[in-house]
Automatic annotation (TrEMBL):
HAMAP family: Rel_fac_2
Function as written in the Swiss-Prot or TrEMBL entry: Peptide chain release factor 2 directs the termination of translation in response to the peptide chain termination codons UGA and UAA.
Record organism: Sandaracinus amylolyticus
Keyword terms of this UniProt record: Cytoplasm, Methylation, Protein biosynthesis
Name the record gives this protein: Peptide chain release factor 2
Family matches, as Pfam families: PCRF, RF-1
PANTHER family with a match to the protein in the record: CLASS I PEPTIDE CHAIN RELEASE FACTOR (PTHR43116:SF3), PEPTIDE CHAIN RELEASE FACTOR 2 (PTHR43116)
Prokaryotic-type class I peptide chain release factors domain boundaries: 189-205
Protein encoded by which gene: prfB
Upper taxonomic lineage: Bacteria, Pseudomonadati, Myxococcota, Polyangia, Polyangiales
Gene Ontology CC annotation, any one: cytoplasm
Length: 326
């Protein structure tokens, strides 16, 4: 309820701000009375107003049951050796920068440094209105093509890293039942970047959900109790997402609707740095040459294109269900 209230308040505040800016621009235009300098000022402000309107339209699409939730994002390097681990760290930086620009709070709850460069994995907790609603657009495998800085012969290499995004669910979400006997809980010493120990007690937690095989870990806090609570949140989110994807797959099979959303293992985007520079989303066909900006966290256009497409697919899904019920 707290997350939902904060999300609704954020949308209302943005809407009221957009209303004020629209009115102010209208008043300014009325005052222009042929003054070219005022008219020019109005024209320069229109793109920003259009952007705000588009963002409100996108926010309207975030009507899913968990879209208002905070998010838990896990990044894993795939094939590509040290290049993949370096790419995973680049993605971690990209999403941290995006969160910063959105005003979201982030906490790295688990991170393992790579042996030569990059990371072997990381999990971040993202707090803010609609964090999950936006970040679910990033679920899947991200591919990087570049001249490898780790190749003595400067050859072009392809590296992969996967993003797994799940909602941070309130405890009152009753769809997920986790039985204590289904859990294997292990403790270990929390390790920092470079391998040094954050503390000398076994405060880090790893939980394995035996029936599903899902494994989560947290070492952000010095308190084992707090790490366990965070790990359980991660587990609830992953099990909820797995169940949602299962229901979605069953619906698609029954009604012949195209796949709506990206799963944890599907390739979603390619970032090409050589022989040319381009970011292409494989699901929406959205392309941009502003590679550096994207890697610095400018993801809104990519995310919005995906949400627009899934909204259209959701409409088709509803139409298919209605037709089947008749």
């Amino acid at each position: 309820m707290v997350q939902e209230k904060a999300a609704i308040e954020a949308v209302v505040a943005k809407f009221e701000k957009l209303q004020r800016e629209t009115k102010d621009l209208g008043d300014l235009l009325e005052m222009a009375d042929g003054d070219a300098s005022i008219i020019d000022e109005v024209i320069t402000q229109i793109p920003e107003l259009e952007k705000g309107t588009r963002q409100m339209e996108v926010a309207r699409m975030l009507a899913g049951k968990t879209d208002r939730s905070d998010a838990i994002v896990t990044i894993h390097p795939g094939t590509g050796g040290v290049d993949a681990q370096d790419w995973a760290e680049m993605l971690l930086r990209m999403y941290l920068r995006w969160c910063e620009k959105k005003g979201y709070k982030t906490e790295i709850v688990d991170q393992q440094a790579g042996e030569q460069a990059g990371i072997k994995g990381a999990t971040i907790h993202v707090r803010g209105p609609f964090a999950y609603g936006y970040l679910r657009a990033e679920n899947g495998v991200h591919r990087l093509i570049r001249i490898s800085p780790f190749d003595a012969n400067a050859r072009r290499q392809t590296a992969f890293a996967s993003l797994e995004v799940v909602p941070d669910l309130d405890d009152d979400v009753g769809e997920i039942e986790i039985k204590p006997e289904d859990l294997q809980v292990d403790t270990f010493r929390a390790g920092g970047k470079g391998g040094q120990h954050v503390n000398k007690t076994e405060s880090a937690i790893r939980i394995t959900h035996i029936p599903s095989g899902v494994i989560v870990a947290c070492q952000a806090e010095r308190s084992q109790h707090k790490n366990r609570a965070t790990a359980m949140k991660m587990l609830r989110g992953k099990l909820y997402e797995l169940e949602r994807q299962k229901r979605e797959a069953e619906f698609q099979a029954n009604y012949g609707v195209d796949k709506m959303e990206s799963g944890f293992g599907s390739q979603v985007r390619t970032y090409t740095l050589a022989p040319y520079r381009l970011v292409k989303d494989e699901r929406t066909e959205f392309k941009t040459g502003a590679v550096d900006a994207v890697l610095d966290g400018d993801l809104d256009d990519l995310i919005e294109a995906y949400l627009m497409k899934t909204a259209d697919q959701r409409k088709k899904k509803d139409e298919a269900a209605t037709a089947a019920a008749q």
